[in-house]
Amino acid sequence: MLDTKVSKIVVTSVLFFFLMIVSNFVVNYLHQSKTEYYLKVQSDLLSAKYQTSYKYFKIMSHDIYAMYMQNEKLISLLERVEASSSSEKALIREKVYKLLLRNYKRLTNMGISQVHFHLPDNTSFLRMYAPNSYGDDLSLTRYSVVKVNKTKKPQEGFEACGFMTGVRFVYPIFGNDKHYLGSMEVSFSTKQMLKSITDDYIYDSHILVSKKIVKNTIIEKEFGITYKDTWETPLYYIEESTHKQIKDKNFYNKINTEKLRKHIADGIAKHTSFSVKVVYNYKHIVLSFHPLEDVRGEKNIAYIVTYTLSNYISNLDMELRYIQMLLFAVLGMMYLFSLYVILNREKLKELALFDPLTKLPNRTLFMIEFQNELNRAFRHKNRVALFFIDLDGFKQVNDTYGHHIGDELLKHVGEILVASIRKNDIAARLSGDEFTIVLSEVETLDQVMQVANKILNKINEDIILEHKIIHVGASIGISVYPDDSTTLPDLIKYADNAMYDAKQNGKNNICIYKKEKNNV
Length: 520
Known about the structure:
- This protein is an alpha+beta fold.
- The protein has helices at about 1-70, 70-80, 85-110, 145-150, 190-195, 215-225, 250-255, 260-270, 310-345, 345-355, 365-380, 395-400, 405-420, 445-460, 490-505; strands at about 115-120, 125, 155-160, 165-175, 180-190, 200-210, 225-230, 235-240, 275-280, 285-290, 300-310, 385-390, 425-430, 435-440, 465, 470, 475-480, 510.
- Strands 7-8-6-11-10-9 form a six-stranded antiparallel sheet, sandwiched between helices.
- Helix 2 runs antiparallel to helix 3, helix 12 (about 395-400) runs antiparallel to helix 13 and helix 13 packs antiparallel against helix 14 (about 445-460).
- The radius of gyration is 50 Å and the shape is rod-shaped.
């Protein structure tokens, strides 16, 4: 018995341990799926913001280009440049600058970083934001300018060179006679790009520029743009002018982990937008990366990076903890209940199937055992007798001596019933002062009557309980299988009817059910 219990406990423990692992795996998988979906949404959102800003910049640039191409004074001045001497070019440059200055100032207030005119030989003619810087050859640094001057078609995209990094839109310029005059550029700095896509929830934003296209010493010394190494990836510089930093300096040291750097490296290797999450001071920060393609079509030449506070992921993690605690509590209670059932199986069975006072089978077990006995009688063609016994005078005993004496009386009657039948017969307490007996393998009614009389005589004897002499009687109704019926409900009904006939006939007697209801 002990070995059986131990084996059941072991099996149950293994089962619940396995169930806990599987459930926790499923919960974590769903949580991870939600988190990854949210991170995908964040990276897509950054991409969408960039694309929206890019389209806005493009439309604005095209409108500026169209406006300038309709300026006859501007075109007339540019048509004179090719045949002019250096001094004459300087005068033309000054006139162009003064002509466009008021308009250029208005454009800078709208977010334009620069308007730049180039000659067909790729030299700089006029930078509106730096009119004294001109004549430098752009052939080696400005692919977009070279491409436009060569193909006479517009070029656009990200470029990290010259005085600034940013999105540049370069257009060809033609004279009134369709003669090619050079190109003009409308540019938006990376700082302006970030300003257009960031909001109050962003902790940090900056541009990462590939080390392949940046010569740090030249850019910094000649043009004042600072590029520095970044902890995020060894393949890129961070453009300091674009860096909106978090005030807490410990932030970057705390989140700079090998695991996070690997996630970033994996994302960059895929050449797509991606997001990763970090936890700092119990706050969840989402790091989103959007790749930029340069005018040559090279991908991952730069990245827009934002660090965004995310309450959603914080709520997801809190939800995960609550679900895990709830899961542990539910499975733990189920496990403890299972152990309780295993260790107390017999006791629980007794509570479910036996009367706690008399220890006799209760109504549930009686119905099961009686049906089993009828099935055996059917197979072996035996007769079965069913007794319904109701005590006479029991209520008076309860009222006179109290319920504790009544309980003792019921226990005593139960002992009388058990002592009056064979081991293979059944005695049960149905409810209150009602008892029942099933006699198996009955041969004659005389045999039935002998048992009934024996029980009745025993109950009629003086019963001494707590120094008190108790007198009670019993009314006994009997039905017989298969004489009276072959079904359990009918046999119970007929025995109950016979018992009430016994009470109506003066109580304290025996009545066998007959259609004619003859008393015995």
